[in-house]
User: What shape does this take?
Amino acid sequence: MSSGAVTANDNTLSDPRHRAPLVAGKQDYASITETVCRIAERDKTPRAWYVAFAVSASLTGMLFLLIGYLFITGVGVWGNNSPVFWGWPIVNFVFWVGIGHAGTLISAILFLFRQQWRTSINRFAEAMTIFAVCCAGIFPGIHIGRIWCVYWLAPYPNQMEMWPNFRSPLLWDVFAVSTYATVSALFWYLGMIPDLATLRDRATNPWRRLAYGTFALGWRGSARQWHRYERAYLLLAALATPLVLSVHSVVSFDFAVSQVPGWHTTIFPPYFVAGAIFSGFAMVVTLMVPARAFFGLKELVTLRHLENMNKIILATSCIVGYAYATEFFIAWYSGSQYELFAFLNRALGPYKWAYWTMVFCNVVVPHLFWFKKCRTTPWIMMIVAILVNVGMWFERFVIIVTSLSRDFLPSSWGAFVPTPIDVAMFVGSFGLFFTLFLLFCRYLPMVAMAEVKAAVSHGIEGHGH
Amino acid sequence: MADHASHNTPDSSETRVAAVLGRFDTAAGLKAAAEKVRDEGYRKWDSHSPFPVHGIERAMGIRPTILPLLVFGAGLTGAIVAMFLQWWTNAVDYPFLISGKPFFSVPANIPVAFELIILFSALTAFGGALILNQLPQFHHPVFASEAFRRATSDGFFISIEAGDPKFDERKTAAFLESIGAAVELCRVPAAKPAIPKAIPWAITFVAALALLPPLGVAWYRASVKREPRIHPLHDMAFQPKYKAQSENDRFADRRAMRPPVAGTIAQGGLMLDTALFQGKDSEGNYVADLPVPVEESVMLRGRERFNIYCAPCHGYSGGLPEGAAGDGDPRSWDGMVSIRASQRALTGDGTWTPPRALHSDYVQDQPDGKLFETITAGVNNQGVQSMPGYAKQISVEDRWAIILYLRAIGRSRNAAADDVPETQRTADTGGNR
Assistant: This one.
């Protein structure tokens, strides 16, 4: 890598004497532009994209029809009932908002740590974050019962002369999730402005030029612009880093600040954040493996990127497994019979199948990543990542449903049974996620070209200065 | 060099050169050239690259941006706004106690304050970067160049604008060429392009339309409506059910409220036994006999209730003997309330109407029904309630049991020594103890 273009193809070797190249193949600035832009610029959309889009758009339509049905009929269409008033909608909310943590983590925390390998995947992960937060935001919004009064959550002067209760973790959650959605979107968009300008300048069709040009805001790539841009990006990264840690902490307060056995634990904030990163990275891998193959991005999103993400999945899996064990220890150590019962009930009660599914997917399966073969084989990592996502959904299900279905008073115990509407809405949220994702893949730059170019410019131009 | 100056627009009479653009092949070349342009003394110039070139700020002499300061200010503002919002709304304007939590406490207000710090700072970082960069700016001389399109892919450019005091079309171009650039002139129309008239009109129209919803809201808020408000969604206020006094076409009489089925007895309607419940017969005369069985259990019940409810005033044995003075003669047979009230009345502290002696002829001659009425409603002489009614405290059956006990008191207090059975006589009753 001393001079000339970047050449190595296998960059997963860990030889401490050589820094592994960030991208594979013989790359220069133009080839990076070409690799990324041609995806958004192709004249004929591949048939597979249309098929995928038709499926996911139909599911999205189903989601919104069901929301309309819920709107007209009421929350009785769900399985939520005494004593489990927080059923699937909140499970889905926590699931999606957790997935939405990887993008900002990759963009912000790895940026602050100068982990330049992030540049190939950060755009993709940020997009995933925003789409996951969109899906997450729907569920508590429609869960409030009288959906048309959702604006009451905002502190605005009103004729009722009432204000929201700022001592409630549920209101903290409103602020945390909406701030997170806003900041993630700003971060994503700010990072994309130079790449939108690239698409604008390459556009041959005047309409494309107008569309990309509008969103590129007249970016000229001038050094003065870059200077302020980089400073803003650094500031946003520095702001997003504590934010990403705070969001899932606040989500965990929804549970931890209550008195319900199994929820009232101080380990929840770090445990939720670790789980969120875990599930988020698993979702990035799930999407990245097929996307890099389908869109010809294997040279920019290399096996080393995937391997690094798999290492993070392994690390966070260990944290999550440790948290599961700690919960049991504390339940015993607390001497509280309700706490101890809540956890024994999780592992041995009527929802033990969900608990052990969770343990298998989140704690057992990721240990495959101790083996380099598994970390670098796309189909294996894809299976592991999907299982992790399944496991993380079950984690939220276990936390919410087992704790609520059997709390202090045995006379009020009950079982939770989801309705087909519950299931269809969850499936529909995947439809929304993939619809947005397919649109992103088709029309926007999937890789942060400017950042990749900056990261590899030494390799391309050599160390001649 | 001769060609590049005019390849853009052949008709140079209507255009002017707004900038000179020089292209370099590498980022390193750009940086080296930037130092030379800076040293040459140009002011209105810039370099353009597809990615931020490391060290170019120093090469160009760009001063650090004030953006971090703005963001710091925004963060402080966010903290203050959040704390003030939470304190004012929850502790001052609308304080309500919930879960015993204090109206204002810093720990509970940290999460929202934190989120607003981040939100304000992030919006400022984003908005500040755009404003300081003067974006959006869709027109710029460099966009006149076709070649400049590579500036966002793999081209490195230096642009020197015509506004620079040292700018001279030929000299500047020659200078850029001398430091290794491929030079191009950016020609723009000499006259500023006129904004199409439709645009201001369209903006005005959209702005006027945007005013309509808030105006409508304000008008509805300010005006009084006689009709009930519109409910687009039938909230719980409108349930599919019939309410009292409404119509229902299913019935011949169209009344949603149905009259009771024949033979229905309303709650409380079983109190038809006037002797038991009112102490009167069907004619309205007081009954002379108890409508409850005369048994020992009833007598004992009556004594127990009497000692609870009646004795405090009337005394356990029914009051003072006939003709005894009610003034300060605290005999055990008077009620303790009556004794105390009589003492205080003597010293002019309040008034007290002494209760009737229950063994007196006045009481004992009354029919049972009349006594029942007295216990139920109390005694009211010309507006002075000398005895309260006990209907709330004593059940109907217990009132009759008390009356039975009253008769026993009357009988015992008015008895002669001969009335005591021979075997139970004591000295007081004329026996030999």
